[in-house]
């Protein structure tokens, strides 16, 4: 019977048996792999044997004599070599000059993999599959790569290096909606000179391919436009790319495209809002009445969320944010009008300040409602007050807002990543006249739309004539203008969706005339007339964008398959592709920075010194090698080895910050950086938890899932 020994796996971070320092039985010391990850086990010393066997053995030697001992030695086979206790960790090759980043490639069309270099048993590989490189070998005139779909010794065969594209930075593009204002069409040119001087009409003979007329949403039909290189010329960016739609048996790809539209009202329900809450009820009732008889009515869903302010400061406010109707809940949605008429009312007490928690209301609508079920997504903010900013505090130092660290800008970025249009209807009342300018600035920034390239902000001055610099005229009913705009927005976007479902096309101008008609209010007030004209223009652009998105989803539109091409940066957005492990690692580094700040604030002495002292301690734990800690003048990027952010075409706010530079920042500058990091960390955590945002880039069963993170949301 083979005697068992003990060993341990040292593949920390990639193996739970290693992380838990689990003792593993070794039957054969010369072939002892870990049962989980396959890495060699390291034997460790057992307890020493007692002295009695040693004494008995010594006595036997003397009794037998030296001659007998010599004859015994001739019969004993030579000992086997002792295995090297140093673990041979099975991991991909590192990039040159990097400590943690592995070499990665994309496969070219018609690439084939084999079990061994030069083997005749070849398997076709899906174009633009991503693999790690585990080894390189030259046989004859061919360079071969040992490739794997993951980092845990997942070797999937060999492939010729000539059939691959090095892709270390993992930058990829996403085409924006062709309806974006002033965008133009995306053309793929065969040379960078042709792209630089490219025709806007598509008549150039150097055009290899053209984007589809429809919008291709990468979350619905996953594709890659990996960036192979880029150059800046004459105030424009030229990008060398490859392109392919990833198809096959990827179960994460949705087979049924949603054809529903959602409109969620986020309404200020404080004391001053009573007449406008009634107008929201009235406008929605009108939309219901108009569309209720349509056979496609079930494809238009409404939601309603109310917000107020801090209930710790004013308990009688009852809630800070509250969802009254979830568009995903059929029972609530079918009784939308009855619920808001019965349950939605203004507060009976004033808030702690005039500004209300608008940002928290918007964030709650974005986060607490499942938007995956809707093709078109819209949130309409209605308020007469500005938004409480994240840095504003109560007397006890606690935060007034329930928004956490999200600013208007970060809320807008999250909404954009989810494909949600944000609108703001700002009521400029006499009571809040001192707040108008600040609130307008906030909401214009919040609602900048990627399609219109402008904000979806509409203001209504409801002040009585003579009490404001720009009062509405002929204002017998001060809420009439607000009701007119609200009805126009809701009816127009609803009609667009229903028209698409019924006819497969959008009659944009006709819908504007029918559902957003000119009214007497525009003649009575020229300022309102200009705003209504802008509203119609915005709806034309958004309606066209919805039409292209709808056709792309229902007609299975794909991007063109091109091997290598050049494109301008006007029609695309840059992203970095990260695996779950890579995103988790980046999130852990951000969390360590934020935790270090919290520790520094809770300690005495210099906050900067305490902050960097805590940073270095946490960095040593993350790196698992104190010898690799940088010098005292190292940057945050060096401390946490943020190699994945190096050499990207964006300016990081933290990569180059040293202790001396941090000391030179004022408190607001530091808090701005930390607030952004908290918002980005929250975004990463949300992305991690969203199954629809993760895709596979190889056909292997254990291939890693990846997601796209806009470079604008990197730290």
Summarize this entry quickly.
This protein is of the alpha+beta class and 715 residues long.
Could you outline the blueprint of secondary structure elements for this entry?
Blueprint: E1 5-8, H1 16-19, E2 24-26, E3 42-43, H2 51-75, E4 104-107, E5 112-114, E6 122-124, E7 130-139, E8 142-148, E9 155-160, E10 164-166, E11 171-175, E12 187-189, H3 192-196, E13 207-210, E14 223-224, E15 227-233, E16 236-245, E17 261-268, H4 274-291, E18 300-307, E19 321-325, H5 330-334, H6 336-343, H7 358-368, E20 376-383, H8 408-417, E21 420-428, H9 436-446, E22 457-461, H10 480-503, H11 508-515, H12 520-524, H13 526-554, E23 562-568, E24 572-579, H14 580-602, H15 607-623, H16 636-639, H17 659-664, H18 667-688, E25 695-696, E26 705-710
CATH evolutionary superfamily of the largest domain:
von Willebrand factor, type A domain
Low-confidence stretches: 45-76, 248-257, 464-476
CATH fold category name of the largest domain: Rossmann fold
Roughly how many Å apart are the termini? 59 Å
Widest sheet, order of strands: 6-5-9-8-7-4-10
Total helical elements: 18
- How large a portion of the residues is in β-strands, by DSSP E? 15-25%
Instruction: Report the average pLDDT across residues.
Output: 80
3D shape: globular
Features:
single chain; 715 residues; alpha+beta; 5 domains; 7-stranded antiparallel sheet; 6-stranded mixed sheet; 18 helices; 33% helix; globular
């Amino acid at each position: 019977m083979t005697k068992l020994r003990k060993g341990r796996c040292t593949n920390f971070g990639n193996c739970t048996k290693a992380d838990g320092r689990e003792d593993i039985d070794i039957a054969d010391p010369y072939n002892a792999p870990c049962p989980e990850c396959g890495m060699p086990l390291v034997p460790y010393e057992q307890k020493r044997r007692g002295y009695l066997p040693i004494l008995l053995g010594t006595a036997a030697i003397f009794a037998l004599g030296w001659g007998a001992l010599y004859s015994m030695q001739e019969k004993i086979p030579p000992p086997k070599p002792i295995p090297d206790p140093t673990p041979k960790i099975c991991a991909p090759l590192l990039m040159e000059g990097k400590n943690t980043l592995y070499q990665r490639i994309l496969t070219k069309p018609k690439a084939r993999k084999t079990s061994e270099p030069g083997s005749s048993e070849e398997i076709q590989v899906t174009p633009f599959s991503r693999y790690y490189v585990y080894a390189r070998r030259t046989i004859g005139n061919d360079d071969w790569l040992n490739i794997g779909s993951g980092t845990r010794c997942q070797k999937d065969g060999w492939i010729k290096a000539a059939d691959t594209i090095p892709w270390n930075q993992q930058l990829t593009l996403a085409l924006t909606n062709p309806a974006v204002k002033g965008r133009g069409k995306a053309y793929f040119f065969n040379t960078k000179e042709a792209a630089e001087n490219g025709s806007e009409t598509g008549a150039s003979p150097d055009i290899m391919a053209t984007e589809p007329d429809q919008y291709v949403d990468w979350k619905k039909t996953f594709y890659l436009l990996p960036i192979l290189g880029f150059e800046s010329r004459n105030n424009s960016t030229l990008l060398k790319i490859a392109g392919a739609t990833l198809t096959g048996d990827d179960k994460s790809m949705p087979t049924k495209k949603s054809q529903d539209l959602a409109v969620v009202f986020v309404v200020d329900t404080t004391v001053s809002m009573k007449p406008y809450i009634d107008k929201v009820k009235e406008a929605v009732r009108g939309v219901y009445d108009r569309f209720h008889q349509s056979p496609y009515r079930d494809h238009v869903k409404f939601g309603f969320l109310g917000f107020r302010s801090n209930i710790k400061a004013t308990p009688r406010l009852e809630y800070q944010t509250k969802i009254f109707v979830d568009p995903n809940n059929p029972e609530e949605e079918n009784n939308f009008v009855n619920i808001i008429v019965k349950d939605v009312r203004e507060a009976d007490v004033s808030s702690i300040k005039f500004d209300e928690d608008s940002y928290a209301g918007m964030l709650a609508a974005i986060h607490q409602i499942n938007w995956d079920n809707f093709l078109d997504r819209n949130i309409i903010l209605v308020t007469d007050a500005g938004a409480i900013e994240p840095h504003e505090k109560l007397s006890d130092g606690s935060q007034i807002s329930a928004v956490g660290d999200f600013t208007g800008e970060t809320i807008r970025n999250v909404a954009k990543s989810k494909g949600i249009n944000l609108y703001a209807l700002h009521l400029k009342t006499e009571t809040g006249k001192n707040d108008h300018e600040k609130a307008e600035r906030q909401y214009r920034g919040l609602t900048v739309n990627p399609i219109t390239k402008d904000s979806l902000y509409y203001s209504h001055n409801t002040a009585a004539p003579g009490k404001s610099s720009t009062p509405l005229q002929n204002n017998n009913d001060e809420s009439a203008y607000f009701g007119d705009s609200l009805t126009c927005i809701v009816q127009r976007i609803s009609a667009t969706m229903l028209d698409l479902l019924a006819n497969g096309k959008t009659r944009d101008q006709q819908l504007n005339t029918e559902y957003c008609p000119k009214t007497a209010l525009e003649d009575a007030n020229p300022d309102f007339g200009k705003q209504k004209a802008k509203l119609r223009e915005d709806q034309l652009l958004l309606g066209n964008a919805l039409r292209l998105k709808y056709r792309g989803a229902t007609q299975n539109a794909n991007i063109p398959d091109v091997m290598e091409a050049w494109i301008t940066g006007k029609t695309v957005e840059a992203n970095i592709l990260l695996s779950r492990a890579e995103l988790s690692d980046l999130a852990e580094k951000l969390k360590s920075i934020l935790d270090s700040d919290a520790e520094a604030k809770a300690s005495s002495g210099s906050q900067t010194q305490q902050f960097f002292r805590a940073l270095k301690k946490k960095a040593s734990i993350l790196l698992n090698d104190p010898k690799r800690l940088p010098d005292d003048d190292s940057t945050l990027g060096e401390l946490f080895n943020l190699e994945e952010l190096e050499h990207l075409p964006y300016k990081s706010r933290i990569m180059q910050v040293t202790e001396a530079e941090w000391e030179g920042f004022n408190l607001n500058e530091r808090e701005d950086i930390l607030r952004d990091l908290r918002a980005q960390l929250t975004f990463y955590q949300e992305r991690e938890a969203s199954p629809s945002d993760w895709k596979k880039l190889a056909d292997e069963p254990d291939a890693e899932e990846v997601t796209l993170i806009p470079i604008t949301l990197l730290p």
